[in-house]
C-alpha cells in the first residue's frame, strides 16, 4: 500500500481535458482528510484508488479513460474542489513504463532470425577459429593438421552424402499452388513434350503431397548446392587412380538423422540446413585451401566453387530463411537455435575424417 504525503487543498489541481470531457488528476500528494491510498488491482493491472472521502460534499468518482489509460475524474458542479492552472503535471499512470516492460530482445534478433542463428553458431566455434568463439580448442589446431588423401576422400564422400540428403529433401517438397491463371496464358505456345513434362510434374505433386513441410521448397535451387561439384571432384580423384570409398558411419548417421528430422521437426531441420551450407561457405573454404596446399598441390576443387556471386547467393538464402522464420513462434525459434550444437557435433565428426 503506497502512502500519501499531506498537501494543502489549495495545491490540489484538476485540469480540464476537452476532448473526452473528463478531468485528469495531476498530483503528488493529497490531504490527510482524503484517506487516499493506492493499491494494485491484480485483475486488470491498473492502479485503483480506494478512499472513504475526499470531501463530504464532493460527488467525485474515478473512472478509467480507455483512450489514454490514465484515471479521469468526471465531476458535478457540487464538487468543492477549486480549479487552478498547474504548470507542472504529474499524471497517475495506470501502466508500467515502456522501459520497465520492454520486450526481451535476443542477440541478433533486430537484424532477423538468421543473425540469431549466426550468433549462436559463432559462440560454438573455438577461440582459434573465431574471435567470437567461446569453446576451447580440442586436439591439434588446424595449422598443424597433417591430412592424407585417403582421409580427405572419406571426408568428401561423407560430405556428398549429407548434401545429397539435404538437396533431395528440398526437391521433394510440394510445389506451391497456383492461385490464379498465369499472366499471358492465352499467348503461350504449347508443345507435346512440354505437356508431357507437365503431366509428370502433376503426378509428382500427388506423390509429394506426403512431403511434410512445403516451406522446404523455398530452398530449392538456391545456388548453394554442393552435390554436383562433389561428384565432379570424386570423378577427378578416380581419374588420378584413387579408389573412392563407401560412405562411413559419420556420414550415414548424419544423413539418417536429417531425413528423420525433416519429417517431424522443421525448425531443427532448418538449423542443420543453415549451418551446413553457411559454414561451408566460410570456414569450409579455408579448410579446403589448407588441405589443397598440403596434399593437392593447391588444386581448387569444385566443392569450393560457386556459380555467380557467393555473397549474393548467401543473402538471397538469408532473406528466405528470415521469411520462413517470421511464421514461427518464439518457442519454435528457440528450438531451432538449440539444435545448433547437435549440428556442430555431426559436422565435426565428418570433418575429422580428413585426419583419419
What labels describe this entry?
single chain, mainly alpha, four-stranded antiparallel β-sheet, two-stranded antiparallel ribbon, 9 helices, 6 strands, disordered N terminus
Report on the architecture of this protein:
The chain is mainly α. Helix content is about 40%, strand content about 5%. It has nine helices and six strands. The chain has a four-stranded antiparallel β-sheet with strand order 1-2-6-5, with no helix packed on it. It has a two-stranded antiparallel ribbon with strand order 3-4. The protein is globular, with a radius of gyration of 33 Å. It holds the Pfam family Heme_oxygenase.
Major sheet strand order? 1-2-6-5
Work out the helicity level: 40-55%
Form type = globular
What gyration radius follows from the Cα positions, in whole Å?
33 Å
Beta-strand content estimate = under 5%
Report the total helices: 9
Cα(first) to Cα(last) distance is 71 Å
Mean pLDDT: 74
Structural class: mainly alpha
- Poorly predicted parts: 1-101
Overall strand count: 6
- Written as H for each helix and E for each strand, in order along the chain, the element string is EEEEEEHHHHHHHHH
Biggest beta sheet attributes = 4 strands, antiparallel
Amino acid at each position: 500500500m503506497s502512502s500519501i504525503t499531506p498537501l494543502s487543498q489549495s495545491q490540489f489541481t484538476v485540469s480540464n481535458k476537452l476532448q473526452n470531457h473528463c478531468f485528469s488528476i495531476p498530483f503528488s500528494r493529497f490531504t490527510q482528510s482524503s484517506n487516499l491510498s493506492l493499491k494494485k488491482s491484480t485483475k486488470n493491472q491498473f492502479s485503483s484508488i480506494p478512499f472513504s472521502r475526499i470531501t463530504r460534499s464532493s460527488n467525485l468518482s474515478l473512472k478509467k479513460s480507455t483512450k489514454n489509460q490514465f484515471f479521469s475524474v468526471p465531476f458535478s458542479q457540487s464538487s468543492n474542489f477549486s480549479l487552478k492552472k498547474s504548470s507542472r503535471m504529474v499524471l497517475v499512470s495506470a501502466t508500467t513504463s515502456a522501459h520497465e516492460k520492454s520486450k526481451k530482445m535476443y542477440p541478433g534478433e533486430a537484424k532477423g532470425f538468421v543473425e540469431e542463428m549466426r550468433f549462436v553458431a559463432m559462440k560454438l566455434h573455438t577461440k582459434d577459429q573465431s574471435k567470437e568463439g567461446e569453446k576451447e580448442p580440442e586436439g591439434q589446431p588446424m595449422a598443424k593438421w597433417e591430412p592424407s588423401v585417403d582421409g580427405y576422400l572419406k571426408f568428401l564422400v561423407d560430405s556428398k552424402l549429407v548434401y545429397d540428403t539435404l538437396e533431395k529433401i528440398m526437391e521433394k517438397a510440394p510445389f506451391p499452388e497456383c492461385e490464379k491463371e498465369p499472366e499471358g496464358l492465352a499467348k503461350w505456345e504449347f508443345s507435346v513434350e512440354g505437356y508431357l513434362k507437365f503431366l509428370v510434374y502433376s503426378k509428382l505433386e500427388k506423390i509429394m503431397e506426403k512431403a511434410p513441410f512445403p516451406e522446404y521448397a523455398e530452398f530449392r535451387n538456391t545456388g548453394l548446392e554442393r552435390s554436383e561439384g562433389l561428384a565432379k571432384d570424386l570423378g577427378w580423384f578416380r581419374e588420378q587412380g584413387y579408389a573412392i570409398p563407401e560412405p562411413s558411419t559419420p556420414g550415414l548417421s548424419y544423413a539418417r538423422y536429417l531425413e528423420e528430422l525433416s519429417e517431424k521437426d522443421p525448425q531443427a531441420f532448418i538449423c542443420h540446413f543453415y549451418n551446413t551450407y553457411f559454414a561451408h561457405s566460410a570456414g569450409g573454404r579455408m579448410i579446403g585451401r589448407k588441405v589443397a596446399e598440403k596434399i593437392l598441390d593447391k588444386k581448387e576443387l569444385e566443392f569450393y566453387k560457386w556459380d555467380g556471386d557467393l555473397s549474393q547467393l548467401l543473402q538471397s538464402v538469408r532473406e528466405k530463411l528470415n521469411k520462413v522464420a517470421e511464421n514461427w513462434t518464439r518457442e519454435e525459434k528457440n528450438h531451432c537455435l538449440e539444435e545448433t550444437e547437435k549440428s556442430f557435433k555431426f559436422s565435426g565428426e565428418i570433418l575429422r575424417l580428413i585426419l583419419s
